[in-house]
Amino acid sequence: MTKTIILLAVLFLTILSCQKKECTCEFDSKVVIKNDSLINLYINDSVFINPVTKIHRNKHYWNRFNEPILNDQENESYRFSIVVLLADYFKVFRVEKKNNNYQLYAKEYAVATTTVRREDSLVRNISKEISKEEWKSIKNTIEENCFWTMEVSEKKQYLDGAGWKLEGFKNGNNCTESDYHIVYRTSPDSSSFKSICEKFIALDTLDVKNFLYPEEDF
Fold first, then answer.
1. At a CB cut-off of 8 Å and minimum separation 6, what does 38 contact?
2. Is the pLDDT of residue 34 over 60?
3. C-alpha–C-alpha distance, residues 102 and 190, integer Å
4. Distance of alpha carbon 178 from alpha carbon 118, whole angstroms
5. Which residues contact 187 (CB under 8 A, 6 or more apart)?
6. In this structure, are residues 216 and 108 in contact, taking their beta carbons and an 8 Å threshold?
7. Do 128 and 103 meet the contact criterion of CB atoms below 8 Å apart?
C-alpha cells in the first residue's frame, strides 16, 4: 500500500513538472510605462536622428546588416542579436512566421569597433525553413518567460561585456497589448531572458555558446 502511494505521488509530481509553465501577466504598471517611454525613444524620437544622413539611428543600425525594422513588419517576428565589441563580433538571428511557413535568418559579421576601424564584413549568412515545432518552442519560451513585460533595460552594465538584444513583433496579442517590445542586457546571468535567447542559438549549427561563455561546461 505504501509503495502504491509513493508511486502515485511520484507520478503526480512528474505530471506537474511536465505541464506548460504560464506567464500570469501580472506586472508593475510603472515598469510598463517606463518601457513604453524607452521604446518610443528607441524607434521614434528625433534625438536619435543622425544629423548627417538624416536617418533614424535605429534604422541606420539595422541597415548596416541588411535587416528590417522589426516594428514595421507585417508578419509575427522575433530577433535576437549579440555584439561583442572586444572581439569585433556581431551575430543576429531572426525568425518569422508567414502564413504557415516559418523561416530562420542568421548572419554573422566581423564589425567595426571603438578600437578597430573597418567596414563591416559578412562572414556567414543562413536562410532556412524551420519546423512548426521549432517555431512553437521559441514562442512558448517567450510567453512562458513573460518577455512582453520584461524591463527594457537594467542598471547592471559592463565596460567590456557582450550586448544581448531581443525584439518581438506580434500584433498586440500579449499581456501588454503592445505590437513591439525590446529587451537588452549586458552579459546576462542565467535568467528568463537568457533562456529565450538560447532557443535562437539552438537553431544554428555554429556553437555560439562556446564563443560567448567558454568557461562554462555544456
1. 152, 153
2. yes
3. 28
4. 38
5. 158, 161, 162, 164
6. no
7. yes
Looking at residue 48, what DSSP letter applies? G
Segment 43-80, tens digit of pLDDT? 775 555 555 555 567 777 888 899 999 988 889 999 99
Q: How far apart are CA 109 and CA 124, in angstroms?
A: 7
For the chain, give the number of residues: 218
Count of Cβ atoms closer than 10 Å to residue 33 Cβ: 10
- Cβ neighbourhood burial of 18 (10 Å; 0-12, 13-18, 19+): exposed
In the chain, the DSSP E strands lie at: 77-84, 89-98, 101-110, 121-129, 163-169, 180-186
C-alpha cell belonging to residue 35: 518601457
pLDDT digits (tens, 9 = 90+) for 99-130: 889 999 999 988 876 566 667 888 889 899 99
| CATH number corresponding to 24-212 | 3.30.1560.10
Report how far residue 96's alpha carbon sits from residue 110's, in angstroms, rounded to the nearest whole number.
24
- Type of residue found at 123: V
For residues 53 and 50, give the distance between their C-alpha atoms in angstroms, rounded to a whole number.
Answer: 6
